[in-house]
User: Fold this.
Amino acid sequence: MAWQERFSATTFSGTIAKLLLLGVSNALAISALPQLWSARAWQGLVAVALATVAIDVVYLSGRHVPLKYLLPGTLFLLSFQAYPVVYNAYVAFTNFGTGNILTQDQALEQVLRRSVAIPEDAVRYAATPLVDDAGSLAVLLVAPDGSQQLGTPDGLSAVDPADVVIDGSRVASVGPWRRLTLGQATDREDEVLGFRVPTGEGEIRLQSFTQAALAEQLLVHDPATDTLTNTQDGAVYLAAEGFYRTDDGQRLTPGWRVFVGFENFNRVLGSEAIRGPFLRVFAWTFVFAVLSVLLTFALGLFLAITLNDPRVRGLKYYRAVMIIPYALPSFMTALIWAGLLNQDFGIVNRLLGTDVNWLGDPWLAKASILLVNTWLGFPYMFLISLGALQAIPTDLREAAFIDGASGYKAFRFVTLPLVLVATGPILISSFAFNFNNFNVIYLLTGGGPPIVGAQTPAGHTDILISYTYRLAFETGRGNDWGLASAVAVLIFLIVALFSIVSFRQTRALEEVN
Amino acid sequence: MRFRHGRIAAFAAAALVLAACGGDETAESTTSDEPTSSEEPTQSDEPTDETSDMASEEPSDEPVTRADADLVIWADDTRAPVIEPFAEDFGAAEGITVAVQEVEFDQIRDLMSTQAPAGEGPDVFIGAHDWLGQLVSDGVVAPLDIANSDDFFPVATAAFNFEGNTYGLPYAIENIALVRNVDLVPQRPETVEEMAEVALALLDAGEVTVPLAWQQPDVYHAYWLVTGAGGYVFGTNDDGSYDPTDLGIDSEGGLEAGAIFADLVERGAISGDVTYDIMRDSFAAGDAPFAVTGPWAVADFGDVNYVVEPLPSVAGGEARPFVGVQGFMVSSFAANELAAKTFVLDYMATQDAQLQLFEAGNRPPALQAAFDAISDNPVVAGFGAAGANGYAMPSIPEMGSVWSAWADAYTLILDGGDPTEAFTAAATQIRNLIAGG
Assistant:
């Protein structure tokens, strides 16, 4: 029927469900678009508009059947995987980090505000901002010696004490001027903050709502040339590479974020101090990831084969117990392991009666990391292998035995390839995950015993991501997101390359079968 | 049938479109109307990824957004209840709305950098003075003018000076001191040597299990040893600010301190396995004669008969620990700068406020009059005496390069390495990092 073709639904409830979901997605778009427009978030606006149009087109037409299945996943892939990677890559080419987080306008405003100086011997007045019926501002200034003066944009003038009306502890009015309340002042805050009383020695300005003092602006901005000039010593600051700086290298903070090209990458790959530990840490990261995958898979598969035997009773209970390391949050268990492996006070040494420095000796620390990671990861591999094993038809193994294959040969040439076909992608993604397994490293050893003589702080069990974390966030000048993003991009390229190659290999496996 | 379904479909679509249009207002109000009482960001573990076998990424901090009020103050859960009544008085007196949001102390600095420029930051926030390096570099903190700065301890006002401007109003000073179990050690040790001998003698006699409850490796807790031996971390300029080009870790005094430290490790007085928890638990159980710690730990020491006193001298030199100062700062992206500055300068500089903050946080107050008012408290007096000649922690950004590398050096010494080699290597690493890596 025509309407069924139009809506591509075959049942009534299916149609309703489809309408509801389409209605929800359109409703979200309609409510979000005006907000995105007023917030001038053009990227978000375009993304939401395109996604909504795509959803409507794909689901309301009778064609594009494969797309109907793929569209939600693709949208999530784009928003949660592709977009962060692209944004990360963008940040890698900027100098975004501590000292460079603002825009240039914001930075200029802060620099100017900071250059207001109060002379050493300046008098500090107790101030009461006043307003008259016409809305003009004035301020009553009371010096520390008690003398009162009225300050207006025309200067200071004397005040007859009889005119000052006090209400409780505060001045209520001075002649025609009434006290300005804080609420009224915040409504015209720029005006109040910009209020100046010129005197012979300079200008008096408000330091807070109740205090005022003489202050002068040391830096003056010239918008035409975008330079700052110091009125006291004449130094000139030009805007260059994210900071206002003089020719001889003096810099004003804060700076702003700018595009710096390949500078971050040059620092990582070119600087001698960083490159030294970098290669070593990279080697260990690779070894750690590969060994983690191998050990967890071997242990998981071994347990799966052992327990999959029909003679084993109570498989359910074994499975439930085995899941525990995987079910508990690794954040907590890694910390507990760190306590267990403590040399003097940990239970492992006490039970074994030894005094082994598990986390302090370079090789033992590496072994401890692998041990804990295996403990954390084998239940998952166990479950996957169990599922893969149960999917193998039993007559294949029987056929192998009839052909004279021993137990080992049957495993190696029949069982293992079939299991690998199912688990291959999982092994690859497990490698990718362990390549960046920051949690276990940071919580167990914090990067491990320090490498003696490293040019920048690095430990024996540091993997690329924990080494970079320390380099970008725990040392240097605060948070260096540009550098961290550059390393993240490099790691992404390495892992992506390895994954692509591995996927090609596993596809070869499938073709055999 | 075709007709009926078509009509139902049309109705449903119309209803949904109406709902979408009406949904605008509620969507807007929920994003801007945060509860004013408390807003504690929880550490959220991301749900386990199906394709991975390890659970969760790094825990993410939920960004705290600005409450809907004229004056917004960020404080941690210890101090927020103290600040609230003052804020409410201020709001009532001036006719504006105020909100005090609870934010975890350690997260405030980084949150300021991300939230303030986006307009989601507070007007006033509390923080430690050594955050100024990052906050000033990022341009998120506004200069203040404290009219009565002479009423505060000099080290406190100096701590909040940075590059010629004052950026905060101090309210608490904290430093470590020597905490001695009087039952085990009746007399105060004058030197480090004496302290080690007494501790080791007690260890040999079996009366204690931990000779020195002193958490390792920790640069902050070991700095007094360095200054006592004549070393320093950064040299000072004439105006008192720190000079990042003058690193003193591998100076003569610094290396001597390293040697003293290594000697104590070798004799068994210092153990690399003592963590904060072990320090606290062993001293509280009477299993350690000395603890080197700060006011944050003494609350857990229970009914042990202890006394707080200055740290012993080192190789003849006075031990001068790091001093940390906490204070109120005003955001440079404050929505209401006048209200923020007035609140901080008029309400938080009073003796009443400073005393109440002391009672909540157990740190000696920065206002001299407030400190004198409670000087009969022996614990506070002890910490005050220990830190009287202390050094404010350098707040220059280069200090960030020191912590990690120097801690590595201490770790190497704790594992039996050569102290001169370890400290010199750390100094090289730090100079590399300061130069840009």
In short: Residues 151 and 334 of chain B are 27 Å apart (CA to CA). Chain B has two domains: 62-174+324-392, 176-322+396-434. Residues 22-60 of chain B have pLDDT under 50 and may be disordered. Chain B touches chain A through 86 residues (CB under 8 Å).
